[in-house]
Specification:
Blueprint: H1 7-12, E1 25-31, E2 35-41, E3 58-63, E4 66-71, E5 75-81, E6 84-86, H2 89-92, E7 103-106
Antiparallel strand pairs: 1-2, 1-3, 3-6, 4-5, 4-7
């Protein structure tokens, strides 16, 4: 009989999945329209500016969903990013106060069978 693992144990074992069976993956670009420096993530990042990016200009979610935050260390306004392209900050945010996105993490959705 297989032992069930919690979500953190699954992530540590490399078994976490986003969407319909693929691993979590997001690409973050420094400039709008997927230009400039690019960083790829498959796990959480509490501070995107420590990953060689000065800011976040656009995002491509290959598999997810992801939960993005306005501030570092998963604070501030939250944005749910589903699979797709986000060429400018206003594609992921309805906020008129801030155009920043400084941290993100995979959004683990646990369902009942």
């Amino acid at each position: 009989m297989m032992e069930q693992q919690s979500v953190p144990e699954q992530a540590a074992a490399g078994k976490s999945h986003g969407g319909l069976g693929g691993p979590f993956k997001v690409s973050v670009y420094e400039l709008e329209n997927f230009q400039g420096k690019k960083c790829d993530f498959s796990t959480e990042c509490p501070n995107l500016t420590e990953s060689l990016l000065e800011k976040v200009g656009s995002i491509q979610v290959e598999s997810g969903p992801w939960l993005a935050f306005e501030c570092c260390t998963f604070r501030g306004e939250q944005f749910v990013l589903e699979k797709g392209d986000y060429p400018r900050w206003d594609a992921w945010s309805n906020s008129h106060h801030s155009d920043s996105l400084l941290s993100l993490r995979p959004l683990h959705i646990v369902g009942r069978l």
